[in-house]
Fold these 4 entries.
Entry 1:
Amino acid sequence: MDHLFSNYGGLAEQILKGDTQILDGDTLVSKAEIDFIVKNEMPNSIDDVVLRRTRVAFLDNTKAEPLVQYIAEALARTHGWTATRKQ
């Protein structure tokens, strides 16, 4: 989880209180990190999280799919998106 301290400094401790299940071994992105990004960095789209706030865009499509799905679910929960908007 060193990347969390690199990216978030002292806020990493707050992220580590969440669900630290790793969603992808290449990027080390966890559910807790996605949840933190969605709640605290105010992204307004899946692309915003995938392209600007994580390294998910650098994965091949088969590895990125579960991450993108979790990102969409987290954004939908936080912003009250409909199923249509989530897709």
Entry 2:
Amino acid sequence: MSKEAKRPTRKGWPNHPIEFKRRLAQQACEGGVLVSRLTLEHGINAILLFKWRRYIVPDEVIAAIRRASVRLVSRESTTWKK
């Protein structure tokens, strides 16, 4: 990581530039991308990336991703056998 990507604040926590946050948030929304792998590659916490994604990526995009990833199951296939 470059020195520009992590600038310490008063408390010693990294202060990532908004461009870095936007890029990772958009990558986290792409299909086939594992958030855990993305966070390990960039040395950040997954909860932090989810927070960035929630604030940076529009709600409509996240809703579309969730709809696309939900697999609908018919009622007949969920009946319980005794």
Entry 3:
Amino acid sequence: MPCNLVCLAVSAWLSLHGYDPSHRDAVLGYIRHESGFETCPADRGTGRFLFQWLPPRGFLPGSCPNLEEQMTEADRELHNYYVGFWTARDPSRYMRRCFGAGECR
């Protein structure tokens, strides 16, 4: 799947916020799988927004936070609750197994 405008914006955001290539690619791959880079896809029962957060994570139902808000929230979670992401040998696997399931805290 080629990188669309949202993908490019997310990639730039991650780079500007100090994500190295392996961590940036892990986040991009996760978003590609979860939402296909749709910032506010229709609720499919699998979560909401770019990262497909399930309640109580994420934002209020009915809202559609902008890209900056969604990236800031994901970054906050990764730095505060999923700190293993930063030392994982395979950041992509960590994203799928831990961040995606809301576990490994």
Entry 4:
Amino acid sequence: MDKFRVKKLRIKLKMKQTLFAFIIGVHPMTVSKWECGKLVPNGSQLIILKILEGNLKEGLKLLWKIQADLIKEKSNECIKS
């Protein structure tokens, strides 16, 4: 996925780089570097981007669920510590 497609997708979703990065599970600087052409998404990142590109509604639902599960897992780890 080239830098123009990443930015076009983010704009289509009406998201700032920070939220877009959170949804994908990367640092906002990573999104910025993708959009400048300094980095390219790796395998798992590319899959997520393609899901978002192909079926935005279902892709977003899936990603929000994954992020919520990760947050819940992290908070459980903190409670146990």
